[in-house]
Recover the amino acids of this structure.
């Protein structure tokens, strides 16, 4: 089974992927950054992000690849929080929130029909529905991020995407990505 940290990392990546990618759309997507959220002092207690990264594989196409370790089991006591903000890249300031998803971890994974099944096929992540997700080491082999959820008329702008793991409503680990739609 997968640990909460690993699944949280995956959840963040999945959510970010949905926001970033726009294959065959009238705009281009640029990934400006992808990094752990340095705001959390105890991030290492929950997850070792290892070599997990997003790489560009074509126009508006990105792949998630690498290894990470979940250091604790994750269940519905923890939550995944995905937030998307407009972003002033020049001044590195968040603007208004344009998307907010906050669900218990296992519920988030079990309800996802678009991403997790494909991600699981490109990794050693457990089958959907297993909860809690166990701590452990996981790898993802070039999972191409989903690109179908953005509307054709998505506003062209800079965005900041935050995927966080919450424990008892307190953020404990996360990833941040800055993207630009042009």
């Amino acid at each position: 089974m997968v640990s909460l940290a690993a699944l949280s990392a995956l959840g963040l990546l999945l959510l970010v992927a949905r926001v970033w990618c726009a294959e065959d759309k009238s705009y281009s997507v640029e990934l400006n950054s992808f990094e752990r959220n340095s705001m959390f002092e105890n991030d290492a207690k929950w997850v070792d992000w290892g070599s997990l990264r997003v790489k560009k594989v074509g126009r508006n196409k990105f792949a998630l690849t690498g290894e990470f370790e979940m250091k604790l089991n994750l269940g519905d006591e923890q939550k995944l929080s995905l937030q998307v903000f407009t972003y002033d890249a020049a001044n590195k300031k968040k603007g208004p929130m344009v998307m907010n998803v906050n669900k218990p971890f296992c519920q988030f994974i079990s309800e996802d029909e678009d991403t997790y099944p494909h991600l699981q096929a490109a990794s050693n992540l457990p089958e959907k529905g297993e909860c809690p997700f166990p701590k452990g080491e996981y790898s993802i082999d070039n999972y191409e991020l989903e690109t179908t959820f953005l509307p054709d008329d998505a506003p062209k702008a800079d965005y900041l995407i935050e995927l966080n793991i919450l424990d008892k409503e307190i953020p404990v680990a996360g990833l941040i990505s800055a993207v630009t739609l042009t």
The chain has a mean pLDDT of 82. The CA atoms of residues 13 and 19 lie 10 Å apart. The two ends are 39 Å apart (CA to CA).
